[in-house]
Amino acid sequence: MPFTDSGVSLHLLGFDQHLLGFVLGVAGLVSVLIIGLALVAYSRRRTWSYLLVTLALATLLVRTAFGMLSRSDLLSATAHHVLEHSLDIFAVVLLIGAIYLARSVEPAGDESLE
């Protein structure tokens, strides 16, 4: 986390709101694009592992939404950080589940969702 010369976190001083809004907007658009691509891949494969990866990628969009809520003062900084770190854990669990299913369950048999 960046700090000023006095040791105060720049996050606490308030990031330039216009730049933050731009970054969150770009992050939201890119997240939607990535989720769209993941949904296309999932629609072709229809396996649990593809679904879990798609859900893990969807956490990126939810993180952006939390950032926008925090920027708009609709979500406290503490809640923002707790929710984002919780999403990190959730995304990792989804990815580990996807890897496990892809390597142990799906190759042995057809575990498609059809």
What's this model, at a glance?
This protein is an all-alpha fold and 114 residues long. The protein is built from four helices and no strands.
Task: Report mean pLDDT, rounded to a whole number.
Answer: 84
Domain module tally: 1
Shape, principal axes of CA atoms: elongated
Low-confidence region ranges:
1-5
Distance between the termini: 46 Å
Largest sheet: none
Helix content: over 70%
Count every helix, treating DSSP H or I runs of 4 or more residues as helices.
Answer: 4
> Could you tell me the radius of gyration in angstroms?
18 Å
Please trace the helix and strand order, writing H or E for each element. HHHH
Sheet/helix structural class: mainly alpha
Please provide the count of β strands.
0
Question: Which assembly state applies to the chains in this document?
Answer: single chain
Sheet-strand content, in percent, reads: under 5%
